Amino acid sequence: MKRIAATDIETLGVVSRQNYLKLREERKLQQLKDEVEDDRYLFEEIPLSESEYRRTMYKEEICNLLVANKLDENHNEYYRIPEAFDDLKCAAVNQEKRFSVATQGYYDNHKEEAWEDNQIKKAFCDKKFEFKREITLEKSRAKRLVLNEERKKLPIYAFRDEFLQAVNDHQIIVIVGETGSGKTTQIPQYLHEDGYTKHGRMIACTQPRRVAAMSVAARVSQEMGVKLGHEVGYSIRFEDCTSEKTVVKYMTDGMLLREFLAQPELDSYSVVMVDEAHERTLSTDILFGLVKDVARARPDLKLLISSATLDAEKFSNYFDLAPIFKIPGRRYPVEIQYTKSPEANYLDAAVVTTLQIHATQSPGDILVFLTGQEEIETVEQILKHRVRGLGTKIAELIICPIYANLPTELQAKIFEPTPEGARKVVLATNIAETSLTIDGIKYVIDPGFCKMKTYNPRTGIESLLVTPISKASAMQRAGRSGRTGPGKCFRLYTAYSFQNDLDDNTSPEIQRTNLANVVLTLYSLGIEHEKLLRFEFMDPPPADAIKKAMELLYNLGALNGQGKLTKVGRRMAEFPLDPMLSKMIVASEKYKCSDEIISIAAMLSVGNSIFYRPKDKQVHADNARLNFHSGDVGDHIAYLNVFNSWKETNYSSEWCYENYIQVRCMKHARDIRDQLAGLLERVEIELISNSNDLDAIKKSILSGFFPHAAKLQKNGTYGRVKHLQTVHIHPSSGLAEVVPRLVLYHELVLTTKEYMRQVTEIKPEWLLEIAPHYYQLNDVEDSSSKKMPRGCGLAH
DNA sequence: GAGCACTGC
Predict the structure, then answer these.
(1) Between A516-524 and A543-555, two packed helices, what is the crossing angle to 10 degrees?
(2) Is the pLDDT of residue A395 over 60?
(3) CA separation for the pair A301, A623 (Å, rounded)
(4) Same domain, residue pair A272 and A201
(5) Residue-wise pLDDT tens digits, A247-268
(6) pTM beyond 0.70
């Protein structure tokens, strides 16, 4: 192609080269954005299935990659783009070519022609949009007719009148609806049709997951023939898609819990349906207690507890012997096979079983449940190796790993249809148990383990342990094979084990988590002190955990000596964060650095997967990370540096890739930060920046995290101040080599050792200044000048 | 010098 010198361009007098390039970038960006917008539009009009929805999301990410020019060879290897997006890649390349040609023409033909070209383009785009819109409307009309027929075929349709009668007769009903019964989509509609939304009151239906709330709302709006967000809407964090018209509202359970803060009697609702109650999320468990109480105060409020399991008796007993309404499901049979004897190595057994299925069983994809990323990577490698050994005698086996931390572009692979003659094997964590469904799975391999979080209220340590799953969980896993046709489930344990070793149900989250936030929420709902100790939990958490939470809240100044919520506590409760983080924000008012503190809080709550560390580029990734630690500022300030640097690049995705940072996490952090900024206004704390005074920022952090102080001991390890407990700085910390005398940490995790994650150096006098009620002089004195506490002496 | 299941506000 003919090159044009910069001087030529200037003499043409059209645009300066820089301006031209900028214009070109902008147009390219706009074009891509338009495509995504079009897809969004489609999403609004026609409810997407979950896999379609995810594909839309992935497409957006791909567009970001394209914009960030990540399609060149190097990055292609680093962020492999799934084949399904080949068309998009081609389009982008063609687009690029067309731009080049147009560029040439642009200069050759001068301003007018180019302008005309632009006009044509615009007209073309308008036309395309109009056309797409027409098709969409037509499709949606046709779909509505089909949907109406489909509604009548659902198992629940036959029980419609019987169900409405039951709701009329009873205030609380426990619904047992197997998967595919249509309860989630139909029940709110029936109630709406039966007049429960008169008098301006809504029907609420809670879901444990955001995607579920969105896609179900989209589906129902389509069935009812209304625009999503009007009569039917959804409400999830960062996104309220409802209006004054809304009568049927799908929401996450956590969102309803938040709404309780504003309206403790749930005045705007006539019916509350707690769906997927058997999952026993932290939020559902608290909702149970609250909603049961409200039902007593408001006889007109109807309560539906919907669960998929057969232990509905327990729910019924809890809700004062509420009647149980059973709805059959529509499922295919699943044949279950056990091993004859226990397997010594379940990874090996999983590989062997996979290959056996591949060699002997009829077509259909395989889903293997593993406990984590590491196992998945190991099995992937072994499988690849073994398949290579089999040569061409056998059909192709496509291996797809999936876990939550896998970059989004790579996750898309599992939704690609399996090519004719090949077989797909999906290696998944628990994410495939409930959070996402994969079409075409016919065989499930279940080794019977998962990783589970446990919390020790005495030490405050959380740890992830590989644990046997429960019977309920095993059934759920098996059910994943019978979604589109009869399936088979291979359990890598004996039938005896299943009967005798596995618990019936997974212990609810509320029994194995830090309750500080739960207790604060309940306090701000007026459930204080004795009332809280009497709170009707379906499965009460350990008394120790509640006591520990109260103690912490008292130390943070959220509760006073009489066990009442203080003004500080009330402000803290506004933030959807761990109380220590909330306290840190409230304290930032005093140190005039709220701007920096909410950035840090947002980054901390996104968690530990911000820094991406690919196996083959660990050194690069670590070096990139160290750039944010200059001056040994500590991990908290490093997080602040990351966020601010990203902000300075105008939230560039490209910058993230260069620095081995996960874009997804950063976007999430930005969303949280925006929300926190809004909440600051609510609690009347001014947004002030004080970026030069690092001590002020550290003091704010310490105001929330002073119980997490650890000091260096003679033997080089750390000891928690106030607790005789040895801890270590996590090697990923920027301070791991610095070894300061006194530090605060964000969290303590137990892996091979007890590690402090996210560490910042503090001064001893700050402890006395900020927490005189908690620390005494002898706590902060240099440990070397003092006798060693018992049990913490040197080894040997 | 080391490993992080999954959600949600």
Answers:
(1) 70
(2) yes
(3) 58
(4) yes
(5) 999 999 999 999 988 898 999 9
(6) yes
For residues A4 and A20, is the Cβ–Cβ distance under 8 A? no
Question: Which residue's CA shows the smallest distance to C1' of B5?
Answer: A451
Q: Beta-strand (E) ranges in A543-694?
A: none
Looking at the structure, tell me whether residues A356 and A288 fall in a common domain.
Answer: no
Angstrom distance, A663 CA to B5 C1': 22
Reduced to 3 states, what is the DSSP secondary structure of residue A87? helix
The 10 Å Cβ neighbour count of residue A623 is 12
Positions of chain B reached by protein Cβ under 7 A: 1-9
Residue A113 has pLDDT above 70, yes or no: no
Question: How far is A395 from A359, CA to CA, in rounded Å?
Answer: 8
Q: Whole-angstrom Cα distance, residue A513 to residue A541?
A: 9
A602-638 pLDDT tens trace? 999 997 788 887 777 888 888 888 889 888 889 999 9
* C1' (B9) to CA (A607) span, angstroms: 15
Judgement on whether residues A539 and A651 belong to the same structural domain of the protein: yes
- Here the CATH number for the domain that contains residue A203 is 3.40.50.300
- A258 nearest nt, CA–C1': B9
The protein residue nearest nucleotide B2, judged by CA to C1', is: A731
A208 CA, B8 C1': separation in Å? 7
Q: Residues A283, A351: one domain?
A: no
User: Distance (Å) from CA A598 to C1' B2?
Assistant: 29
A283 CA to B8 C1' distance (Å): 8
Looking at the C1' of nucleotide B8, which residue has the nearest alpha carbon?
A254
All residues at 6 or more sequence positions from A336 whose CB lies less than 8 Å from its CB, including other chains: A478, A488, A489, A491
